[in-house]
């Protein structure tokens, strides 16, 4: 049922996009198949920017499987999965901001307006951090109240609440890392997104979770402490990397 609903919803959205793009023509770009010419250079650029982002999503899926294996018990996995679903309320606006930054930064960068690139980056990251802090406060102080609305099992509720108590501190750093990666993608540098995702999910987060839970035999919530540490470290790396790329771009313009 869930799979069928997903297919139907995706199909409906695709039909709506096709209607507005090709029939209603309510977009900045008017598509005309007669004007299309094959250009291998453009195709290469698309793959160079898109492939690292696709690989990043694969790494996220691999990290999820690793975490499920490390957590071990069904209750811990259930708590982790439940928290991940609820976290979508936080990720949706942050992903929207980060995705919009790719287009805006690419547009201003292509026009050699690095002044506007700096302005839009500061605006996007600052607003994203404000949203993240709001969610952090809400999840930290009210997780005990709303988690029982989704789960009946006491142990799963306790683990899910503990997850939010820990990860609430990570949301501002997640925002910085996500938006910085997308800005670098807009500037034509897609590899940082792949490298940072690999570093955060596999090298730091999964490794620390395995070390804490399996080697040191700590409680399962130490796996989320590992995630918090990885988010902090990669956000610092991402913002420094972004600043370096922007400085280099300013010199070249």
From TrEMBL:
It holds the Pfam family MatE. One of its GO terms (molecular function) is antiporter activity. Keywords: Membrane, Transmembrane, Transmembrane helix, Transport. The keyword Lipid biosynthesis does not apply. One of its GO terms (cellular component) is plasma membrane. PANTHER family: FMN_FAD EXPORTER YEEO-RELATED, MULTIDRUG RESISTANCE PROTEIN NORM-RELATED. This is Polysaccharide biosynthesis protein C-terminal domain-containing protein. It comes from marine metagenome.
């Amino acid at each position: 049922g869930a799979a069928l609903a997903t297919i139907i919803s995706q199909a409906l959205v695709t039909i709506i996009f096709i209607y507005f793009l090709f029939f209603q023509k309510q977009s900045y770009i008017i598509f005309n198949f007669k004007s299309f010419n094959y250009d291998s250079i453009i195709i290469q650029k698309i793959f160079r920017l898109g492939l690292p982002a696709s690989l990043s999503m694969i790494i996220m899926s691999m990290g999820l499987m690793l975490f499920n294996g490390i957590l071990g018990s069904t209750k811990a996995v259930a708590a982790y999965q439940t928290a991940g679903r609820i976290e979508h309320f936080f990720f949706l606006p942050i992903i929207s901001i980060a995705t919009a930054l790719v287009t805006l930064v690419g547009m201003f960068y292509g026009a050699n307006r690095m002044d506007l690139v700096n302005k839009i980056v500061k605006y996007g990251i600052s607003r994203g951090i404000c949203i993240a802090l709001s969610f952090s406060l809400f999840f930290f102080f009210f997780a005990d109240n709303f988690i029982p609305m989704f789960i009946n099992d006491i142990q799963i509720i306790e683990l899910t609440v503990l997850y939010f108590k820990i990860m609430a501190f990570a949301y501002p750093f997640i925002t910085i890392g996500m938006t910085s990666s997308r800005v670098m993608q807009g500037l034509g540098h897609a590899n940082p997104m792949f490298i940072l995702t690999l570093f955060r999910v596999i090298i730091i987060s999964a490794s620390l979770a395995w070390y804490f839970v399996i080697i040191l035999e700590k409680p399962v919530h130490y796996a989320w402490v590992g995630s918090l540490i990885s988010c902090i470290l990669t956000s610092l790396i991402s913002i420094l990397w972004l600043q370096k790329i922007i400085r280099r771009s300013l010199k070249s313009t």
